[in-house]
C-alpha cells in the first residue's frame, strides 16, 4: 500500500491541508501524508511520469472472453493486429480515432487476395509482458479460446466475419497468419474488428502453462493474472475494489511510453471523483454525471472532452417477446412518447445530442438517411397508434433501470412523466447493476434504459450488434426476416462503405426504425473529466482510454 499512497501524495505539492483532506480521504490517502508533502515539497515540480485516475468499481474484466466488465485496464495490457490512428480535434488536448483507417500494430503488414476474401498478416517481432515473442500460434490459439470459452461474448460480436476459427484462420508460417471471410463485402468490418478489443492477441505460450482439465484455455487463471498480453502496460498491483497500479513496458512494440505509471483508484461517488480532478488530486476521472460535468465546463483547471459524433447512445430497448411490445404499433407509439429534447437539456445539460432521424453514425462513407422515420415527442400521434393497436385507453409497462447509472434513472423519470399524456403508464423498477445486466441479456424485462455503444462502427456491424438472432446482445429479442434479408443484400456488395452500399444500409435502417425494437434517444458525450495539465485524451470507438497516449505537463 505504501507505493500507491506515495504515488498519490506526490501529485499534491503545495496544497493546503484543508483542501486535501476530503478528497484525499476518498482516495484512500491519509490527510497527514498530504500535509507532509505540502510542507516539505512545496517547491517540488509535479511528477510528469505518474498519472492518477479515479473511477467507480464496476468489476474489471481483463478480456472479453472472460465476461463483460470494465475493460479499461485490459485495453492497456492487450494489443490487436491493427489499430485506428488518432487525429486532433478542435478541442485542445483531445483527439479521436479515424474510424475508417487502419495502421499496423502487432502486424507489420497485410495483403488481400482470393477476390477480397483472404487477409494475410505478417507479424512484427513483438514481445509479450511475459517476454515471449509473438507468433502465428498466438493468433490462432487466441481465437480458439475466444470461441471456446463459455463466458465469451466474442462469437456474437465478430459474426458474420468470423464464425468458425478452425476453418477461417490458418497458420502460414511462424510469422504469418491468414484469415478468410465469407464475403468480400465484409472486408471493411473485418479490418475494423482487427483494430478493436474483441480481437486482442494473447500470449499462448504463457497461458498454456496454466491450463487445467477444468480450465482448458486458462480463462479462469487470467481473471486474476492479467499480464498475458502484448499491450503497453503490465499490472504490478491489483486489489479488486481498491486499486490497480500499472507500469509502462520498456519493450512495447510501438516504442517509448511517456506516462510510466498509471495509478488507478476506485472511488464510489461521482462528485468526489470530479472534485479530485478539479482540486488537482487526480488527473482524470471516469463515469462522471452530466450534472457534475456541466458544472465544471467553465473551470479552467479541467477539460470536459466533447466529440463531434460520439457513438455512446442512450437507448430504450422494448422487449418484443412479451406484451405490450410484441406489437410494432405500440413500439412506434413509445417512440413518439419519448421526450428526446427534454432529456438532452434536463438530464445531460447539453452534453448529448440527437442524431436524427437515424442511429447509424452519419459520417460513415456512403451514408444516407433518406426516407427514415423521424421520431419526435408527439403524444397525439402516440395515442393514435395505441388506438390502432387496440389500446384506446393506453397501456402500462415496467421500465428497468440500473442503480449504478444516475443519468439513466433521471432519463427514465423524464420518460415516465412525458409518456403519461401519450397514453403510457410507466412504472420504474430500479435494480442493482448485476441484476440489471442479467435482465438485459436474458430478455426478462418489458423494457429497460441504458447507455451502450457499438465498438465497431461500420454500418453492417451497427445494424447487427443489437439484432443478431439468438444473441444475448439482442436486447429487444427482436428477430425479423425482412431486416436480415436487407442486411444480407448489403453484405453481398463488394464495398461496405460505397454509395451503393450506403443505400442498402439505408433500406435496412428504415426497416429497423419502423419496427422500433429500440428507441434511440440521444448520443451522449464521454463522461470523463480531465485535468487541463493532461493532453492526449483520445476518444475511441470502444469508449475506453488509451493510457499510453496520455501526457502530463
Q: Can you describe this structure?
A:
This protein has 553 residues and is an alpha+beta fold. The protein has three domains: 2-76 and 231-307 and 527-552, 3-Layer(aba) Sandwich (D-Maltodextrin-Binding Protein, domain 2); 82-208, Dipeptide-binding Protein, domain 1 (Alpha-Beta Complex), CATH 3.90.76.10; 312-524, Dipeptide-binding Protein, domain 3. Helices cover 31% and strands 20% of the residues. The protein has 20 helices and 25 strands. The strands form seven sheets. The chain has a seven-stranded mixed β-sheet, covered by helices on one side. A four-stranded antiparallel β-sheet has the order 6-7-9-8. Strand 6 (107-113) and strand 7 (118-123) form a beta hairpin. Helix 2 packs across helix 3 and helix 13 (328-336) packs antiparallel against helix 15.
**Mass-distribution shape:** globular
Please report which band the strand proportion falls in: under 5%, 5-15%, 15-25%, 25-35%, 35-45% or over 45%. Answer: 15-25%
**What structural class should be given to the helix and strand makeup?**
alpha+beta
Strands, count: 25
Q: What is the third-level CATH name, the topology of the largest domain?
A: Dipeptide-binding Protein, domain 3
Work out the helicity level: 25-40%
CA-atom Rg in angstroms: 24 Å
- Name given to the CATH architecture of the largest domain: Roll
CATH superfamily of the largest domain: Dipeptide-binding Protein, Domain 3
Low-pLDDT segments, ≥5 res: 1-26, 28-44
| Strand line-up in the sheet with most strands | 10-11-12-1-13-22-14
Reading off the top of the CATH hierarchy, the class of the largest domain is best stated as Alpha Beta
Largest sheet: 7 strands, mixed
Number of domains: 3
Mean pLDDT: 90
Cα distance, first to last residue? 26 Å
Number of helix segments? 20
Amino acid at each position: 500500500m505504501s507505493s500507491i499512497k506515495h504515488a498519490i501524495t506526490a501529485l499534491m505539492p503545495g496544497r493546503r491541508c484543508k483542501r486535501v483532506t476530503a478528497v484525499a480521504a476518498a482516495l484512500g490517502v491519509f490527510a497527514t501524508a498530504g500535509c507532509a508533502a505540502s510542507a516539505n515539497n512545496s517547491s517540488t515540480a509535479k511528477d510528469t511520469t505518474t498519472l492518477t485516475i479515479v473511477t467507480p468499481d464496476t468489476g474489471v474484466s481483463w478480456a472479453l472472453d472472460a465476461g463483460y466488465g470494465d475493460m479499461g485496464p485490459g485495453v492497456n495490457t492487450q494489443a490487436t493486429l491493427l489499430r485506428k490512428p488518432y487525429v486532433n480535434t478542435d478541442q485542445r488536448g483531445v483527439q479521436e480515432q479515424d474510424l475508417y483507417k487502419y495502421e499496423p500494430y502487432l502486424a507489420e503488414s497485410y495483403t488481400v487476395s482470393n477476390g477480397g476474401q483472404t487477409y494475410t498478416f505478417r507479424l512484427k517481432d513483438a514481445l509479450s509482458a511475459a517476454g515471449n515473442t509473438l507468433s502465428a500460434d498466438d493468433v490462432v490459439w487466441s481465437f480458439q479460446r475466444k470461441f471456446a470459452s463459455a463466458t465469451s461474448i466474442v462469437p456474437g460480436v465478430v459474426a458474420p466475419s468470423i464464425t468458425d476459427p478452425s476453418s477461417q484462420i490458418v497458420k502460414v508460417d511462424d510469422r504469418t497468419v491468414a484469415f478468410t471471410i465469407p464475403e468480400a463485402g465484409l472486408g471493411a468490418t473485418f479490418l475494423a474488428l482487427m483494430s478493436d478489443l474483441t480481437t486482442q492477441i494473447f500470449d499462448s505460450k504463457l497461458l498454456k502453462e496454466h491450463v487445467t482439465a477444468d480450465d482448458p484455455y486458462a480463462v479462469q487463471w487470467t481473471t486474476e493474472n492479467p499480464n498475458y498480453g502484448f499491450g503497453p502496460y503490465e499490472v504490478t498491483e491489483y486489489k479488486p475494489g481498491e486499486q490497480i497500479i500499472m507500469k509502462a513496458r520498456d519493450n512495447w512494440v510501438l516504442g517509448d511510453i511517456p506516462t510510466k505509471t498509471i495509478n488507478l483508484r476506485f472511488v464510489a461517488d461521482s462528485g468526489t471523483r470530479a472534485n479530485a480532478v478539479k482540486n488537482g488530486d487526480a488527473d482524470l476521472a471516469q463515469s462522471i454525471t452530466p450534472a457534475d460535468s456541466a458544472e465544471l465546463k467553465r473551470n479552467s483547471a479541467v477539460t470536459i472532452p466533447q466529440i463531434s459524433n460520439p457513438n455512446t447512445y442512450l437507448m430504450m430497448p422494448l422487449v418484443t417477446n412479451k406484451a405490450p411490445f410484441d406489437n410494432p404499433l405500440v413500439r412506434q407509439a413509445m417512440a413518439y412518447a419519448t421526450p428526446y429534447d427534454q432529456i438532452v437539456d434536463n438530464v445531460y445539460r447539453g452534453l448529448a445530442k440527437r442524431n436524427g432521424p437515424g442511429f447509424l453514425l452519419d459520417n460513415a462513407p456512403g451514408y444516407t438517411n433518406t426516407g427514415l422515420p423521424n421520431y419526435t415527442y408527439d403524444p397525439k400521434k402516440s395515442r393514435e397508434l395505441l388506438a390502432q393497436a387496440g389500446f384506446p385507453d393506453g397501456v402500462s409497462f415496467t421500465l428497468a433501470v440500473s442503480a449504478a447509472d444516475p443519468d439513466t434513472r433521471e432519463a427514465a423519470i423524464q420518460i415516465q412523466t412525458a409518456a403519461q399524456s401519450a397514453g403510457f403508464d410507466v412504472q420504474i423498477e430500479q435494480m442493482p447493476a448485476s441484476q440489471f445486466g442479467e435482465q438485459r441479456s436474458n430478455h426478462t424485462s418489458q423494457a429497460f434504459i441504458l447507455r451502450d455503444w457499438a465498438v465497431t462502427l461500420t454500418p453492417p456491424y451497427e445494424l447487427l450488434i443489437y439484432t443478431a438472432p439468438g444473441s444475448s446482445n439482442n436486447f429487444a429479442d427482436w428477430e425479423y426476416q425482412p431486416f436480415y434479408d436487407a442486411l444480407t443484400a448489403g453484405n453481398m456488395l463488394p464495398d461496405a462503405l460505397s454509395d451503393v452500399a450506403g443505400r442498402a444500409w439505408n433500406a435496412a435502417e428504415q426497416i429497423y426504425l419502423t419496427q422500433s425494437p429500440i428507441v434511440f434517444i440521444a448520443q451522449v458525450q464521454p463522461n470523463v473529466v480531465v485535468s487541463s495539465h493532461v493532453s492526449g485524451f483520445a476518444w475511441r470507438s470502444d469508449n475506453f482510454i488509451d493510457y499510453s497516449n496520455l501526457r502530463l505537463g
